[in-house]
Amino acid sequence: KAGVTQTPRYLIKTRGQQVTLSCSPISGHRSVSWYQQTPGQGLQFLFEYFSETQRNKGNFPGRFSGRQFSNSRSEMNVSTLELGDSALYLCASSDHHGTGILSGNTIYFGEGSWLTVV
Amino acid sequence: DQQVKQNSPSLSVQEGRISILNCDYTNSMFDYFLWYKKYPAEGPTFLISISSIKDKNEDGRFTVFLNKSAKHLSLHIVPSQPGDSAVYFCAARDNYGQNFVFGPGTRLSVLP
Q1: Which of A30, A101, A111 to mutate against chain B (most B CBs within 10 Å)?
Q2: Which residues contact A61 (CB under 8 A, 6 or more apart)?
Q3: DSSP notation for B70-104
Q4: Triad A17, A21, A23: Cα angle to 5°
Q5: CB-based contact, A115 to chain B, within 8 Å
Q6: CA distances from A89 to A52, A113, B21, B30 (A)
Q7: pLDDT at B26 > cutoff 80
Q8: B68-72: which pairs have CB atoms within 8 A and are 24 or more residues apart?
Q9: Average per-residue pLDDT for chain A
Q10: How many whole angstroms separate alpha carbon A22 and alpha carbon A8?
Q11: Are B64 and B48 in contact (CB under 8 A)?
């Protein structure tokens, strides 16, 4: 089974531009979540999609948005880029269906997209 | 306020000895915990998980212990190998949400 695939792997953008990152989840996984990792920081949760609907959102400004398509592929967009947006953006997928103790599941990460804003 | 804390930014251990990585959490609603390992320029790789109905889970050289009353979990790696050198993240999920909260990570160096 192919893993989580993220494109592009590396990109450089200028302040004020916008960027779109793409994620293809593991086949059969319907939940896709996005995380940001900056140097010295842990993984900060951006948002999570399940069946094309955003179920959870982290504490990021509205410049960060995402969507999920019917085939579970997901994109995230960052508009009006700032220098502080330079980070590793990680996508993760899971086949999670419900909540509760017995519905524990694992999320699997892609290799990430390295964004540098200059 | 960090809900998941890994108070040791780094840890060095001799090859063959035990590595113990610690994680503390504040949210009593967390019911499922995972550990991930991350090498530079790669995405995190799942290692092991534990549900709050257990206090121990073992998988090969990796064992995770959960102390719910102390809101503390730890990952034990025995014996440690140089290939274990990486950043280890602890993650927790509450039984209402679907997203995971990650700690800041601990960099483990296993010295040959």
Answers
A1: A101
A2: none
A3: TTEEEEEESS--GGG-EEEEEEEEESS-S-EEE--
A4: 175
A5: no
A6: 20, 5, 25, 25
A7: yes
A8: B70/B24, B71/B24, B71/B25, B71/B26, B71/B28, B72/B22, B72/B23, B72/B24, B72/B25
A9: 89
A10: 7
A11: yes
Contact A91, A8 (CB under 8 A): no
Q: Is pLDDT at B2 greater than 90 in this prediction?
A: no
At residue A30, the 3 state secondary structure works out as coil
Coil/strand/helix, residue A102: helix
The DSSP H or E segment spanning B6 is none
Whole-number Å distance between alpha carbons of A108 and B45:
7
In this structure, of A62-66, A68-72, B34-38, B49-53, the range with the lowest mean pLDDT score is B49-53
Supply φ then ψ for residue A101, to 5 degrees.
-60, -40
**Partner residue facing A110 (CB), from B43, B46, B91:** B43
Q: How far apart are CA B34 and CA B89, in angstroms?
A: 8
Which residue is listed with tokens 């113990």?
B20
The first and second tokens of residue B70, run together, are: 């102390």
Side chain identity at B28, as an amino acid letter? S
**Residue A41 structure tokens:** 């920081």
Q: How many residues does chain A have?
A: 118
Point out the residue among A42, A50, A112 whose CB comes nearest to the CB of B105: A42
Q: In this structure, which amino acid lies at residue B56?
A: K
At residue A101, does pLDDT exceed 80? no
pLDDT > 70: what percent of chain B? Answer: 96
pLDDT at A98 over 70: no
